[in-house]
Design goal:
single chain, about 220 residues, alpha/beta, Rossmann fold, seven-stranded parallel sheet, 6 helices
C-alpha cells in the first residue's frame, strides 16, 4: 500500500516526538514512530529500533516500507546527548553519539529517499544549539550535530531539484518536558513548547516549493544568541 500522506518520525520519544505525531495526525497524515522505548503517544503505528545500530535501523525503515508504503515525510529527530569534558570523552562515547545523531540519519535517508523520489516529499532533520556552536564539554555532541547539518545541506542540494524538500531545524533552546530541561532545572516559561515547535515542523512540510526554507532556527523569546 502506498500513500502520499504517510509521515515517519525517527526518534519518536522524548517531549518533541509525541508532539510531532499528534500535529501530523491532526494535519491528516498517517504516522509511524521509531524509538527504542515503548510506543509513544500520538502515532498510528510504532517500530522499535536502536537507530545507532545500522542493521536495526535498515530493518526498521524497510519494515515501514513493506507495511505502509512510501512516506511523503521523514523527520529524523533521534539524538544521543552527552555532556562531558574532552579528557573524559572516550572514543566509544564519541562514536556512540555520532552513530545515533549522524549515521542513523544517513541510514534513514539512504533507505527511504529513493522511494520518495517518484512523488516528492519532505525530509526534516532536528538540529540543536550544538549544530552551529561547539561549546566546552560538548565535543562529541557538537561534532555529530555539525555533521548532521552538513548532511542536510548536501542532501538539500542534491535532492531539492528532484522534488524533495530537505530542511534542518536548529533547536536553540531547551524543550519543555525534555531531558535537558530536567537536567538544568529550567522553568517551563523559559523553554520551547513542544507543541508549538511541532507546528513549525508542519509549516515547513506545507511550504510551497517556490518558497522552500532550508534552515530555520528556533528559540524562546528570551533566549540568548
Amino acid at each position: 500500500m502506498t500513500s502520499s500522506k504517510l509521515a515517519v518520525v525517527a526518534g519518536a520519544g522524548g517531549a518533541l516526538g509525541p508532539a510531532l505525531g499528534i500535529a501530523l495526525g491532526n494535519a491528516g497524515f498517517r504516522t509511524v514512530g521509531i524509538s527504542r522505548e515503548l510506543p509513544p503517544k500520538g502515532f498510528d503505528d510504532h517500530v522499535s529500533a536502536d537507530l545507532a545500530d545500522t542493521r536495526a535501523a535498515e530493518n526498521a525503515f524497510s519494515t515501514i516500507l513493506s507495511r505502509h508504503g512510501t512516506p511523503s515525510v521523514l523527520i529524523y529527530n533521534a539524538h544521543r546527548f552527552l555532556i562531558e569534558t574532552f579528557e573524559n570523552t572516550s572514543p566509544d562515547d564519541f562514536e556512540a553519539v555520532w552513530r545515533t545523531d549522524t549515521l542513523g540519519a544517513f541510514v534513514a535517508a539512504k533507505t527511504l529517499l529513493p522511494s520518495m523520489l517518484e512523488e516528492g516529499g519532505t525530509v526534516l532533520f532536528s538540529g540543536a544549539t550544538a549544530s552551529t556552536r561547539g561549546s566546552a564539554r560538548f565535543s562529541a555532541f557538537a561534532s555529530a550535530k555539525f555533521a548532521l547539518r552538513g548532511l542536510a545541506q548536501s542532501l538539500a542540494r542534491e535532492y531539492g531539484p528532484q522534488g524533495i524538500h530537505v530542511a534542518h531545524i536548529v533547536i536553540d533552546g531547551l524543550i519543555d518536558g525534555g531531558y535537558a530541561q530536567q537536567l538544568y532545572d529550567v522553568p517551563s516559561a523559559d523553554c520551547i513548547s513542544p507543541e508549538a515547535l511541532a507546528r513549525e515542523y508542519l509549516n515547513l512540510i506545507q511550504q510551497p516549493r517556490s518558497v522552500w526554507s532550508h534552515e530555520i532556527d528556533i528559540r524562546p523569546f528570551n533566549g540568548k544568541f
